[in-house]
Amino acid sequence: MQKLKKIIFSVFTCTFLLNVNIPANSTEKEVKVYSGRHYNTDRSVFKKFAEETGIKVRLIEAAGISLIERMKREGKNSQADLILLVDAARITNAAKAGLLQSIESSNLENDVPVGLKDPGKEWYALTRRVRVMIANPKVVDVSKINDYTDLADPSLKGKVCLRNRKSPYNQSLVANQLINKGELATKAWLSGMISNVSKPFFPGDIAIIRAVSKKKCGVGIVNHYYVARMLAGVNGRRDALYAKKTEVLTPNPAHVNISAGGVAKYATNKNEAIQLLEFLASSEGSKGLAAPTFEHPLKEVNQNQIVKNFGEFTPDGVTVEELGEKNSLAIRLMKDAGWN
């Protein structure tokens, strides 16, 4: 008979208990995870890890920026062993703030592609997200929108919707343009695109998809999986109908962002944290995280038909490290351009 143990999932005000069969001869081990990912489906991946290793997972979920600030306050008393964050800026900023530590893992070096990991070995990507454009063909001519820079065209005056400047996804997109096009071209693009915005800046990607579908604007910029989740009915029938009125336009090459993980500087369960990070970055773990959320795993595309219908994408080759380096300048240029 196997001994019954539990993984405890804590979300600040809520605790989730999952029964997991762990081998009776396993020693009492655990790993404490601070996660900025907000997907219930992640828990099945943690459960699989616990069953295979006998290591209990304690999970605290919150917004990425909140977790970073919490770790700064906690300092050496931090409970975190492993931190999971979404967006290049978030994970690189955590490293810059001295919240992570360098680790040695041949598995991580082999499983995570070049450009999606820290040269200093402090963080590693786990899933990929493509920043796409979402358009209403009844409002704009989709044949004339092929790249992010096309949103600065005067013909789109009053037809562009954008998420607010605080969005790390948009900050990384601007950083991406700085690397690909240079500062002068990026300034010109920002000026033209912001002048085409007539509606207030939106708080989230889903709100943009709804606005585009309702013809409140003609085109916006979102992460691909938000559209996929809506089309799949994850948010309900009404949002599925909204999404069906829009068309996904993927630039070629496209800006690709990530979710990533790193071992906390003051981890008390370092070896267990490395084991979990290795599992999450493995083919099995990365697919386990990405498949149900409509993200892309590290080395393949999501095989869900909804995502496949968006068409193929080619990453533009900009590294996550480069995105992090340009984050501060990107924020400053966005502010100067009037991106609120």
From TrEMBL:
UniProt-listed Gene3D superfamilies: Periplasmic binding protein-like II
Q: Which domain of life is it from?
A: Bacteria
Cite a single Pfam family from the UniProt record. Answer: SBP_bac_6
Name the Gene Ontology molecular function terms of this record. metal ion binding
Q: Which UniProt keywords apply?
A: Ion transport, Iron, Iron transport, Metal-binding, Signal, Transport
InterPro entries in UniProt: Ferric-bd (IPR026045)
From the UniProt record, give one GO term of the biological process aspect.
iron ion transport
Q: According to its record, what are the GO cellular component terms?
A: outer membrane-bounded periplasmic space
Which residues are Fe cation-binding? H38, Y225, Y226
Family statement? Belongs to the bacterial solute-binding protein 1 family.
Name listed for the protein in its UniProt record: Putative iron ABC transporter, substrate binding protein
Q: What high-level taxonomic lineage is stated for the organism?
A: Bacteria, Bacillati, Cyanobacteriota, Cyanophyceae, Synechococcales
